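ugh finaly. both done.
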Amino acid sequence: MTAELNVPLVGHTALITGSTTGMGQDIARAFARSGARTAIHGLGDEDSIAELVNELSQLSGQECFHFAHDLSDARQGGALVEAASAKIGYIDILINNAGVQFVSGIEDFPAEQWDRLLAVNLGAAFHAIKAVWPSMKSNGWGRIVNTASTLAFSGEFGKTAYVAAKHGMLGLTRTVALEGAELGITCNAICPGWVYTPLAAAQVKAKAAALGLSLEQTTKEHFLSEMPTKRFVEPAEIASAMLFLCSDSARSITGVALPVDGGISA
């Protein structure tokens, strides 16, 4: 397993969207272990979420909070920040990690899925950033990290909405970085390759069923074939990159789209 970066973030409060499942859980654990007070967001089984909240509280030594705003209404991104700020007091680290997927050719792509993906994957991040901006500006310190994708640089058949949203996330990241440059606020994007999350697992399963192949063969031939490392990126690697970008050592790094992709972009 990949060793997680050790970045002390005691005294900071991190809100991580999309953190009750998949990669988001690992990101939340990494920030809690670094001493940051954590607020998690997402839907899921109530008992499992309660266990995660308890785990994060123990890891950080501070109370963790959970919020369940539905980001398919993009404006709930702002409402989430307002609710978390009211409960915790302030947020100076915002991780926009929430994401959903839908795969279909453009001719049959449902309009409601386009709206849902653009809201969750892009619109909610805009509203969350807008809501957290005044306090970060007032404090003269803020870190915003957006989860983009290698598909922020290219297209892929059947992923119209996802690709459009991730391209938009880079534009949002770069513009916010410019506006925050003199305010002590950085904004960067992480662009993962294939990370084996529930979202990726569902795509592997669907592809295998469509092709009549085993999961192992589908993974090797249709997912990892484009990755020079021939392995999935580990969630801890994504978390470490985010931790670094939130550290004072990275205060001059802003507006960056950082690939963590096993060499795809090479």
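ok and the 2nd:
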Amino acid sequence: MTVVRTLLALAFSVATLAYADINIGESVPTSGLAGDTGKALALGASIYFGRVNAQGGINGEHINLITRDDGYDAARTLANTRDLIDKENAVALIGYYGTTPLQELIKSKILDTSGISLVGAYTGADSVRTGASAYFFQTRAGYTQEVEKIVSLLNDHLGVTRIAVLAQKDGFGEAGYAAVKEELAKRKLTLAGEGWYDKNSGDTNAAAQELAKVNPEAIIMVAISKPAGTFAKQYKALGGTSQLYGLSPIQYDEVTKLVGIGNAHGIGLSQVFPAPTNAQLKLVRDFQKDAEPFLKTGDYPSYALLEGYISARLVTEAIKRAGKTPTRASVYAALNNMKRFDLGGFIVDFSDKKRLGSNFVELTMISPTGTLTR
């Protein structure tokens, strides 16, 4: 049993010490290629709900986080969602994972027909961000904004013109790929090369060989953590010298554990939440205090852990505002009227029918010690 799985089980036990009266549903991959990130999202949410329950819950009622494993498969995501709504009577959903699962979820209209809110999803694709569903409340900036930040640094500030892309073959990869092409076109540039890998296998060998032949000045990785790590290792072994940059779905701690600090050092990553080590923010201080019992000695709290924690805080606030007996409709109304909610240095704003709660983006880099510099 992995450390992450053990910690997740411990957190769930804390979150459900008493009979849970308020059910919150979540569908994430807790197995497969994206399993570590999915478990971290669920753990982060469970840690915060555990805190709320330990303090007596909300109006005497405890929160029960019901997490279903979807293996990063859209069909399973839809089946889990129906189960969470129809069988578990969830009043809200939280922290889903992946572009393609979210595209299918939005397309199915399950959120709209059930009148249930989804708070936070691990995707920044425009296809699920803009006018997708009034019931989807997003907590993170989009891939377009992340790519703009990276390309601006590379081209506008560093003079880099030969930029290639590594992308995953699915809705996520296509969204990031399109954003890179569009951002380069604004500067009258074209892609120096492209490499793709299969979503299910995560095999990046062919992509590494293809891009090593080109060896551009920089490569933007539209990838998740494990394929990004294996690509970096393979690419460097083939003699590639490009500066590697990745989008926020890449968790730096997963990369360093998978391929070692030597292969991870120097990878740049865009982030859509404050650094989970930035104790200058009250949000992060609270998060660190709550997460500390669930971290192995020497481990750093991850961005995915913080993302799940933030989504749980928002859902909790909405439940508090929803009245003594929260329903799907009252939770939705509370979220719909959540104006510039300050979580302690990180503001989420759903006022004026906004559904994109944050535009925060910053760039980081994996240091020689395996930590992040900003």
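summary for the 2nd one i guess: The first helix runs from residue 3 to 15.
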